[in-house]
Specification:
It is a single chain. The protein has about 650 residues and is of the alpha+beta class. Among the domains are: about 120 residues, no CATH class; about 130 residues, no CATH class. It is built from 17 helices and 20 strands. The strands form seven sheets. Strands 1, 2, 3, 4, 5, 6 and 20 form a seven-stranded mixed beta sheet that branches. A three-stranded antiparallel beta sheet has the order 10-13-12. Strand 5 and strand 6 form a beta hairpin. Helix 1 runs parallel beside helix 11. The radius of gyration is 26 Å and the shape is globular.
Length: about 650
């Protein structure tokens, strides 16, 4: 029996950071939004101990993400002062913060928007579908018998579990693809080990505008068959710990504590072989004498501890019911607390490790209504839709035809984090990490996420922002919160456009969506050298053209003169891109080859004349009045990009009509 019924423009299942970003984006444009959380808080893993923005690119990527990061910094400045240690710790890393600060920032953003109504402790139970559209969803409370129905025009599944996706009967998968399915070198069953340094090398040498990562997968061991299976990477609780004696709550022995679960930590790598200890790989293969409780450093003497992985136990989680998921979460909680207790008390742990470990405990000022322990575990991977494009390992790897990752001409967001996966099973080969543990820091390059990867097949008014259409390996570069927040904003903009036109999100003009994103300062193409503040319009233009194959590497060279041969192929590429069979990768391949030829500069007047001539051949008119300021000075790549981008904006209605 339904207790209440509500009607909104947009319903979002999952009050994760990406769901919040969708809600804020749509709500600020006047849409009424239902934001549905499965528990009694919002913010997902960012309010539950992750404590860090996992990113290698620290530039501006999207407006809400930027606002969130600025609000976190502003919180510490206002409370402690601009020159305080708290602000230094927050800013001097990839941006770190305490869980309660993230929760405060998210709550503040939502409460300021009166178009957003939050429903806490509700999960989807049933959907009503007619003609490839979800009309309504029925929700049940997780703590009483209340049931409600929400009617909406558009729906977003921003949850970590993808229950709305499953209820909608759209195609999805769980687990690992085989190596052959998408021709992915690192897919399926795989055993590897880490090498240490600074990766990727190009970033370490200053050729790529990314921070470096200290480890990368190196050796591939025997037994790496590449077979696919239903295994997913391990989950954990990102436990917030403090070393402040006045704020620290000592770790107690869990009721279900079993010492034998942790004995692999005491054994040597050789002794532990063929014993499938359900532990984080490094705890098993590394010498306990070198162990130290550590994690990203948070303000106020806290860390985000990341050592409590529990492989295999989570395999039923993606398709399980609420109670089963709760039981799995409880097992992870007991495992994390038990691991901490082990390091602090076990008779065979070296005394110096015990002493150092006992300096850490649960913080009194975090999760005060949950025994100072996070409410949500880190659900790293569950369902993944089989959408209208499947993002695979090749999408995040350098193209063989030019010096950036393959071009997706419907790109709406960027990735910058390495493709990775935590343990999928507890099995190891001699000397290796556990099955599935990979970190492709050297191989991965910044890539473009296509809009089609957010769209499930079979339902036209639904977008997925976490359970996106990607393979297990490739999902690693997407799954981090900065990227997910950007995808949430994209979903918000798509919903706004659909609402404005009275159509579904699967039917909108993606070129128009891209222009709207770029005009709102989204990064939809990664570049090393865009100068947004000084060359705002040129930067927007280059960003857009990067999704159309106009650039063959990560350097826009916006201040350099454009050559005649590149200008000619830009103009031809523009004409070609108006056709439905346009392949941006073919254009990028040509640009890459031609870029090696001798540079013959042209003036802006010559460039306009070349455009007019080519458009005339294709029966397209050019409004030359727009370019009346052209002159005989040499034209830069940035200036040429601005002109080409203006053509796209002027002719956006032609993009779907010219065959």
């Amino acid at each position: 029996m339904i207790n209440k019924e509500f009607t909104f423009d947009l319903a979002i299942v999952g009050a994760t950071p990406s769901g919040i970003a969708s809600a804020i984006t749509a709500g600020r444009k006047g849409l009424t939004v239902a934001l549905i959380s499965s528990n009694n808080q919002i913010g997902g893993i960012l309010t539950n101990g992750l404590g860090v923005m996992d990113r290698l690119y620290t530039g501006f990527r999207s407006p809400i993400f930027n606002e969130i990061t600025e609000n976190i910094i502003e919180y510490y400045i206002n409370k402690y002062g601009e020159n305080s240690e708290q602000v230094k710790v927050c800013k001097d890393t990839r941006l770190t913060f305490e869980p309660h600060v993230a929760e405060y920032v998210f709550n503040n953003l939502i409460e300021k928007n009166k178009n957003i109504k939050v429903f806490k402790s509700f999960i989807p139970k049933k959907v009503n579908i007619k003609k490839k559209e979800i009309n309504s969803i029925k929700l049940s409370s997780t703590h009483n018998n209340e049931r409600i129905q929400i009617i909406a025009k558009s729906f977003i599944d921003a949850s970590y579990e993808g229950d709305l996706i499953a209820l909608s009967s759209v195609p999805y998968t769980v687990g690992r693809e085989s190596r052959e399915e998408f021709n992915e070198p690192h897919a399926g069953r795989i055993f590897s080990t880490h090498g240490f340094g600074a990766f990727p090398l190009e970033a370490a040498e200053g050729e790529l505008n990314l921070d470096t990562f200290p480890v990368t997968s190196q050796l591939i061991f025997s037994g790496s068959t590449g077979d696919g299976d239903k295994a997913i990477q391990s989950f954990t609780y990102r436990v917030c710990l403090t070393s402040d004696p006045d704020q620290m709550i000592p770790i107690k022995k869990p009721k279900s504590y079993k010492r034998e679960n942790y004995l692999g930590i005491l054994e040597s790598e050789k002794e532990s072989r063929k014993k499938p200890y359900k532990l984080k790989s490094q705890l098993v293969i590394n010498n306990i004498k070198n162990y130290k409780i550590r994690g990203p450093k948070l303000p106020n003497n806290k860390i985000s501890w990341n050592d409590a992985n529990l492989p295999e136990i989570n395999h039923p989680y993606p398709e399980a019911d609420y109670e089963t998921r709760k039981n799995i979460s409880d097992l992870h909680r007991e495992h994390a607390l038990g691991l901490l207790y082990f390091f602090q008390n076990d008779k065979d742990v070296p005394a110096e490790i015990i002493e150092a470990s006992k300096k850490w405990g649960l913080p009194k000022d975090e999760f005060i209504d949950n025994e100072n322990f996070p409410k949500e575990m880190y659900v790293r991977e569950t369902r993944r839709i089989r959408g209208r494009y499947i993002f695979s390992e090749k999408d995040a790897s350098l193209s063989s035809d030019f010096e950036r990752t393959p071009i997706n001409n419907d790109s709406v967001a960027i990735t910058d984090w390495p493709m990775d996966s935590h343990e999928c099973n507890a099995n190891r080969q001699p000397g290796s990490l556990a099955d599935g543990k990979i970190l492709l820091s050297e191989k991965t390059r910044p890539s473009q996420i296509p809009y089609k990867a957010l769209l499930p097949k079979g339902i036209d008014n639904l977008i997925s922002t976490f359970c996106v259409s990607a393979t297990h390996v490739a999902f690693g570069t997407i799954r981090v919160e900065p990227t997910l927040i950007q995808l949430g904003e994209v979903a918000g903009f798509a919903t706004i456009e659909a609402n404005k036109k009275g159509i579904n999100v699967a039917e909108i003009d993606v070129d128009l969506l891209q222009i709207n994103l770029v005009e709102n300062n989204f990064e939809i193409s990664f570049f090393n050298d865009i100068e947004k503040k000084k060359f705002k319009e040129q930067s927007k233009s280059i960003n857009y053209l990067g999704s159309k194959g106009f650039f063959a590497d990560y350097n826009s060279k916006m201040k350099e003169d454009i050559s005649k041969v590149i200008a000619e192929h830009w103009i031809k590429g523009y004409i070609y891109s108006l056709r439905k069979d346009f392949d941006a990768n073919e254009l990028a391949k040509k640009i890459y080859i031609l870029s090696k030829e001798k540079n013959i500069s042209i003036s802006s007047t010559q460039f306009i004349d070349m455009i007019e001539s080519e458009l005339r051949k294709n029966n397209i008119n050019l409004n030359k009045q727009k370019f009346k300021n052209s002159n005989h000075k040499k034209m830069t790549i940035g200036q040429a990009a601005e002109i080409m981008y203006s053509l796209y904006k002027d002719n956006i209605k032609l993009l779907s009509s010219i065959e």
